[in-house]
Amino acid sequence: MRIAVAAAAVGAVVLAGCAPVQSGSAPTGGDERTGQLRVWLFDEVNRGPKEAVVREAVTEFERAHQGVTVDVQYIQVQTRAERFKAAFSDPASAPDVAEFGNTDLAGYVAGGGFAELDLGQWPDAKDLLPAVLDTGKVDGKVYGVPWYVGVRALYYRTDIFQELNLAPPAKLDEIAPLARRIRAAKPDMLGISAGGKYTYGAMPFVWANGGDIARKDGDKYVSTIDSPEAKAGLRQYTELIADDICPPAQCAGNGGDASVEAFRAGKAAMVVGGDFNRKSVDASSAAGKYAVVPLPGKDAGDIAPAFAGGNLLGVMKGSSRRTLADEFVRLLGGKSYQRKMFDAMGNLPTFGDVQADVAKANPVLDPFIRTLEAGTRFVPVTPDWAKIDAQAVLPTLLQQVAAGGEDLDRAAAQAAEQMNAAFGG
Amino acid sequence: MMPTRRGDGRIAFAYLAPALLVLAGLLGYPIYQLVLISLFDYGQEQVSGGAPLTFLGLGNYAELLSQDRFWAVLGQTVGFAAVCVAGTLLVGAALAVLATRVRTWARMTLFLAALGAWATPAVAGSTIWLFLFDANFGFVNEVLGTTGFSWTYDRWVAFGLVAAQVVWCSFPFVMVTLYAGIKSIPGEVLEAAALDGASTAKTATSVILPLLRPLLIVVTIQSVIWDFKVFTQVYIMTGGGGIAGRNLVLNVYAYQQAFAASEYGLGASIGVVMTVLLLAVTVGYLRALRRSGEVL
User: Fold this and answer.
1) Can you state the angle between helices A228-238 and A408-423, rounded to 10 degrees?
2) Does A417 touch chain B (CB under 8 A)?
3) What letter does residue A295 receive in the DSSP assignment?
């Protein structure tokens, strides 16, 4: 009897709510012209200069708009996923304008987070580099204004190359023999600091060999990481994580930052590093003893396609101050403030003319600009990419081959299978 | 014993009702939600209302149980937890016995040190251990003269290091509990055993251990549950599961595969599987004890 009552009670509860909670889709907000505009930007290791530029933009914006205040919050890059997820689920706690990484875009748009932007009325927009603007698009619609772009190139130690009478590599497959020679001559040096978790350091090898992460098949992506071309690139990269170049025990666990850190510490003769690493390398023991060349491609004279990293500025879908938000994005993301951000942080501008200007004034940028001009590549633009990224599919593949003794064919097939599962294939 | 009257059960239930309500609210509801979510395709898009809910039934479970990786990680978790539980109990019990045999100042020092380890937050403790065992600048490598040796690279070395950290931060609970248990054994009992001519070993196995049994059960079950669910130490010390995920345990796997990837439905199903496994362990343990005649 008692059991029957209990069962009935449980049944009633189950029937009462037989679906998990869903917050309604974000209301497409209003268009108030006064009040507080909330802005989220990423915190940086050295935030001072960024904050100064942003403060200048805020002051200019507040002066131009009576009765408007701008509240800027700096959020941590590591916890951005939680912060943005919370913001999408609860529009009341969401900002109006936010900075975000371009690889996160597709996931955020699918999550209902960002509003489509109309750049037609904005004169600056025509100078945005097309390949860079593409990183702010999903299905041909623009959801983010590229605020800056980041590309990687090959850093090398001029003093060591001179001492050993070496020239920087002209082809991708020259890197491994070169690195081996350096480590043989200087056993406490890493020939090249190559990290097992350094996805964006490894992908140029895949792209240069004609491979890719995935290709679009109809409206779906299909992984091509197990294609012969992609595997040739993966083999070339994982070959670098070996005892005679970059010992797995030291390198297999490294991501991009840790890889560059070894170069900064003076323990590596080469590293794939970004234009955004330049300032920190200049403040390290490698300062003044290094040069940068574009990462060479498969054949001499080629440049390996780089990953077009960078951050975007977007307007949240639930914003109740749409016009103000649009205007703020155009101010902070516009030419004059991109230029100021370059001076403050070294971030590469996304406007062709501004980029050419800063490149002329700063010859050190030349290898990065040439890499950009040679053409960049990007990750698959789909919300599933966030999942593949979170599940560490590519780092696992690199590590399995470089340190786990796994066969490349098998590991690549596994990774492709896992990606296809995420793509819903 | 008083004869049971009709209505006693109802009165007893009335007395228990407030506690049951709290339990139902704090425990029942989350578990209900967990089970419910595990039956749906429930990702970030569904949470924020951008996509409709799809009822999968046991689809998430089928997917989970068909993954080779899941079984490998599960096995690894069981082995890791077993080593941690054994280590924790051994160290805790040995130090509890030691504490009963030494002078007050030594006991105080031991307790203070143990409580320090206990009170250290897991994140801080793991990070400090990482510093100590750092390949290039760590104190341990400095002392051993093995500079450059990576303690977190090799699969078994890394597991060993993490297990040591887990034991370090969980033995104080065992030690304090067992120390209290040993102290609460009446002096007369031990005296009687001594008068009967029992050796120290005999006293320990025939008198002290049986008396400590209920406490041992509690600390064992606690340790099993804690060590099976370990997350922080593995996540921090092996950088999210080691090289190519070879140091993954179930909780870290659930976080990485499901929650970081916004697959809450799949993650919830891992949670349900873990809950069921732990309940099974606990129930099995309790039944085995009852069979052996122990009343809890």
Assistant:
1) 120
2) no
3) P
Spell out a b/e string for B189-216, using b for 16 or more CB atoms within 10 Å of the CB, else e: ebeebeeeebeeeebeeebbeebbeebb
Distance CA B221, CA B212 (A): 14
Distance to chain B for A139, nearest Cα, Å: 17
Instruction: State whether residue A83 sits within 8 Å of chain B by CB.
Output: no
Do B1 and B15 meet the contact criterion of CB atoms below 8 Å apart? Answer: no
Q: How many CB pairs under 8 A join A and B?
A: 104
Q: Which of B51, B68, B77, B28 is nearest to B265 (CA)?
A: B51
Domain assignments of chain B as residue spans, ordered by start: 68-291
pLDDT of residue A28: 61
Domain B68-291 annotated CATH 1.10.3720.10: yes
User: Rounded to whole angstroms, how far apart are CA atoms A123 and A417?
Assistant: 45
CA–CA distance, A59 with A81 (Å, rounded to integer): 29
Q: What distance in Å separates the CA atoms of residue B279 and residue B27, rounded to the nearest whole number? A: 14
Say whether A197 sits in a helix, a strand or coil.
coil
Helix B155-183 / helix B122-132 crossing angle, nearest 10 deg: 130
Q: Contact A320/A150 with Cβ under 8 angstroms?
A: no
Report all structural domains of chain A as residue ranges with CATH numbers, in order of start.
35-149+308-377 (3.40.190.10), 152-306+381-423 (3.40.190.10)
Q: How far apart are CA A396 and CA A390, in angstroms?
A: 11
- Please give the structure tokens belonging to residue A122: 């904005």
Q: State the smallest CA–CA distance between residue A393 and chain B in angstroms.
A: 9
**What is the per-residue pLDDT across A316-346, written as a single tens digit (0 to 9) for each?**
988 889 999 999 999 999 999 999 999 888 8
Nearest chain B CA: its distance from A193 CA (Å)? 16
A396 and B49 within 8 Å at the Cβ level: the answer is: no
Whether B260 sits inside 8 A of A390 (CB atoms) is yes
Average pLDDT, chain A: 89
Could you read off the pLDDT of B146-158 as tens digits, one per residue? 888 888 888 899 9
